[in-house]
């Protein structure tokens, strides 16, 4: 079984695992809310009893000697334990998704390395075509190589986006609870917005482009461009070079 097959098999099980964790978090949240409600009622009642005792002279007004009952304190401790369990489950859910993201990053890196080796082998084995003046020209091999790179990486990005969408369908707060989880600081960023990879993306056909990958929405695209596509910076640079050559 290849790496991507193993990754897909693990990814298929991820939504069910996350659903179970979120269901447990939801049950804990219900228990937490019930305990808090009971504790608030108990504390309010005990405060009223203390006030009546102070007014009647049965309880000293010294606040250092006044305390809630053991039952009230136990309820508060129990609610803290439930909150800790919810935090632990949230961390586990985040770590699960993060581990799959790291696996996907490894696969993309490995794919890029394999594509690079394939391009180098193809360039080494390609026989040049002699021209009438005796020089050798490779035609549009470099352009087709970049085009192949673009199409292949776009297909890889599309597959990654589809996989991420499947995870996001479950991870996007299915229980209605707000989870403020941290973002992986090692996640690479792209595009003019300097954000992580998401949705459909397009690669600039300038091999020296500093950014290389762009989100459709950030560059005003709604569908995959036909033929070569250059970002605004590379397009302006290309036009300036044309102007100087004329």
TrEMBL record:
SUPFAM superfamilies (alphabetical): FYVE/PHD zinc finger
This protein's UniProt keywords: Chromatin regulator, Growth regulation, Metal-binding, Nucleus, Transcription, Transcription regulation, Zinc, Zinc-finger
Residues carrying the site annotation Histone H3K4me3 binding: 190, 201, 205, 213
Region span, Disordered: 113-152
A molecular function GO annotation: zinc ion binding
One cellular component term from this protein's GO annotations in UniProt: nucleus
Residues annotated as domain PHD-type: 188-237
Assembly and binders: Component of an histone acetyltransferase complex. Interacts with H3K4me3 and to a lesser extent with H3K4me2.
Name used for this protein in its record: PHD finger protein ING
């Amino acid at each position: 079984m290849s790496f991507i097959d193993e990754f897909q098999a693990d990814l298929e099980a991820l939504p069910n695992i996350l659903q179970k964790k979120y269901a447990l978090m939801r049950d804990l949240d219900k228990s937490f809310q019930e305990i808090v409600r009971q504790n608030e009622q108990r504390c309010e009642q005990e405060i009223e009893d203390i006030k009546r005792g102070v007014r009647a002279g049965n309880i000293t007004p010294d606040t250092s000697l006044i305390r809630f009952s053991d039952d009230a304190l136990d309820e508060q401790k129990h609610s803290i334990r439930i909150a800790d369990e919810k935090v632990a489950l949230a961390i586990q859910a985040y770590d699960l998704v993060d581990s799959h993201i790291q696996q996907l990053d490894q696969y993309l890196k490995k794919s890029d390395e394999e594509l690079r080796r394939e391009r180098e082998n193809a360039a080494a084995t390609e026989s040049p075509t002699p021209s009438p003046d005796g020089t050798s020209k490779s035609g549009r091999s470099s352009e087709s190589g970049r085009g192949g790179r673009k199409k292949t990486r776009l297909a890889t990005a599309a597959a990654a986006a589809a996989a991420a969408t499947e995870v996001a369908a479950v991870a996007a707060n299915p229980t209605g609870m707000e989870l403020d989880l941290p973002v992986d600081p090692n996640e690479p960023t792209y595009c003019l917005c300097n954000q992580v990879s998401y949705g459909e993306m397009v690669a600039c056909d300038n091999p020296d482009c500093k950014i290389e990958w762009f989100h459709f929405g950030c560059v005003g695209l709604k569908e995959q461009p036909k033929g070569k596509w250059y970002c605004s910076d590379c397009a302006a640079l290309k036009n300036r070079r044309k102007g100087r050559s004329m």
